[in-house]
Write a sequence for this structure.
């Protein structure tokens, strides 16, 4: 079945990846639709190559009209039981937290980028002179306190005077960033986090296929009835 299921699975992972973006403004309904569409597209493949397997059809795909018919009956048949809803719910929670986490990282990058303004060309001539003088201060050069005359206060005054104009603009966004990261890191690393959910997604897909196989006779009966009704 793998050659025919490769594209739906690839599309699923690509959709999840596109949702985890600082520029993504999708909601839980979008994730639910992504998961539903995936299982709908997987159903014809699973049914033809696993549930309704025949020796003379394993090596080839089947007619597109039959595929469309099976996809059309997905909601009525529910071939994978509750597994699609379970997968959708876990992805809604984990993708949502991961997206906020990525946005926080993006915000942090903006804050760090703003520190580039602390380049010497933005400093006043007076600050440059004080910084030059301070560079010869033994305490600021890491020498052991007590062996030389301390100039800690001078260092503090120079740094405070030269950096005050930047501290105000950096403090608020950086504090917001730190608080967001602290709150979200636990969610992302938890058992409901995106990493764990993605790692267990393959298991859930296998469980869905096994569910369809175990209920194969009943599925074939439902498909035959619905296919006859539709046709």
């Amino acid at each position: 079945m793998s050659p025919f299921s490769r594209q739906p699975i690839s599309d699923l992972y690509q959709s999840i990846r596109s949702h985890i973006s600082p520029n993504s403004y999708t909601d839980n309904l979008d994730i639910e639709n992504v998961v539903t569409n995936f299982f709908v597209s997987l159903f014809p493949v699973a049914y033809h190559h696993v549930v309704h397997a025949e020796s003379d059809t394993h090596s080839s795909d089947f007619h597109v009209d039959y595929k469309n018919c099976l996809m059309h009956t997905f909601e009525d048949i529910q071939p994978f039981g509750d597994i699609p809803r379970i997968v959708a719910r876990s992805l809604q929670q984990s993708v949502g937290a991961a997206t906020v986490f990525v946005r926080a990282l993006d915000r942090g990058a903006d804050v760090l980028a703003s520190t580039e303004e602390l380049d010497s060309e933005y400093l006043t001539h007076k600050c440059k002179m004080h910084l030059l003088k301070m560079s010869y201060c033994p305490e600021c050069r890491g020498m052991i306190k007590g062996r030389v005359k301390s100039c800690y206060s001078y260092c503090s005054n120079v740094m405070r005077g030269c950096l005050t104009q930047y501290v105000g603009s950096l403090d608020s966004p950086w504090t917001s960033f730190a608080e967001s990261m602290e709150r979200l890191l636990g969610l992302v690393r938890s058992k409901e986090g995106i990493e764990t959910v993605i790692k267990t997604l393959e298991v859930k897909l296998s469980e869905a296929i096994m569910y369809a196989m175990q209920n194969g006779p009943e599925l074939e009966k439902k498909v035959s009835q619905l296919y006859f009704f539709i046709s």
Observations:
- Residues 55-60 have pLDDT under 50 and may be disordered.
